[in-house]
């Protein structure tokens, strides 16, 4: 075993392959080519005189040797990260890396905006993959397959770090411009007179909040459909005359750009009643979530930049 050949890059490839079990995902995470990943695997296999990762149809499988070596590799990488974090100066201009950020549909525009206007001018060598979240991402976050996600308060928090970007303090009614709902008092009785099309992120609620509170009061709400796409919701509202509701100021900003759609805040008392229906053990609001796997200086810097810029955009939108 020629341990002198073991270097930092080979160690991070070892650790990344052990998590992703896929050379393509490793290449994306580390910002290198698949051939470079294969080259480092070749070096590792020569050093340890073991295949380490057996290729299968579903991805790599760790050998017994790889399982034995992995804790040592993680310990060495932790030492490197401590040295880098505590004793070197981070420069975003020279930082490199590829990051995956997933978010609900309402946040994707703002994330792209802050990346292009605030983050990339400071760190031009970073690359990003921004995706709309369409399923529970908790496991992928835990394993480092997704670097960051921006979500509401409904998420599994096993091994996930969460930081609240902003609390939900207002709810907005959405309907076709000139809809009769705006002529009456915005209370449960009047809202239940109209069909309701829910803006629902892959059923993160068992049923719309408005339906839940209506049932508690012995009333019924006619649910005409549900979607997790705000563009689709706009068509349904215009075409069917249904009303809807959102807690997201970015969603309200979007609908305010559409002449045929009108929005307004719900009364404070009704908003409090609706928000009280959410009981998930954490404050109702918007969260930046990530795992503790990536301890690089670039990850720490990007996390803070995302948190600050998305939060600032939220409060700017709230004031407008």
UniProtKB/TrEMBL annotation:
<dbReference type="InterPro" id="IPR036390">
    <property type="entry name" value="WH_DNA-bd_sf"/>
</dbReference>
<dbReference type="InterPro" id="IPR050389">
    <property type="entry name" value="LysR-type_TF"/>
</dbReference>
<comment type="similarity">
    <text>Belongs to the LysR transcriptional regulatory family.</text>
</comment>
<keyword id="KW-0804">Transcription</keyword>
<dbReference type="GO" id="GO:0003700">
    <property type="term" value="F:DNA-binding transcription factor activity"/>
</dbReference>
<dbReference type="InterPro" id="IPR005119">
    <property type="entry name" value="LysR_subst-bd"/>
</dbReference>
<feature type="domain" description="HTH lysR-type">
    <location>
        <begin position="6"/>
        <end position="63"/>
    </location>
</feature>
<dbReference type="InterPro" id="IPR000847">
    <property type="entry name" value="LysR_HTH_N"/>
</dbReference>
<keyword id="KW-0238">DNA-binding</keyword>
<dbReference type="Pfam" id="PF03466">
    <property type="entry name" value="LysR_substrate"/>
</dbReference>
<dbReference type="InterPro" id="IPR036388">
    <property type="entry name" value="WH-like_DNA-bd_sf"/>
</dbReference>
<protein>
    <submittedName>
        <fullName>Transcriptional regulator, LysR family</fullName>
    </submittedName>
</protein>
<keyword id="KW-0805">Transcription regulation</keyword>
<dbReference type="Pfam" id="PF00126">
    <property type="entry name" value="HTH_1"/>
</dbReference>
<dbReference type="GO" id="GO:0003677">
    <property type="term" value="F:DNA binding"/>
</dbReference>
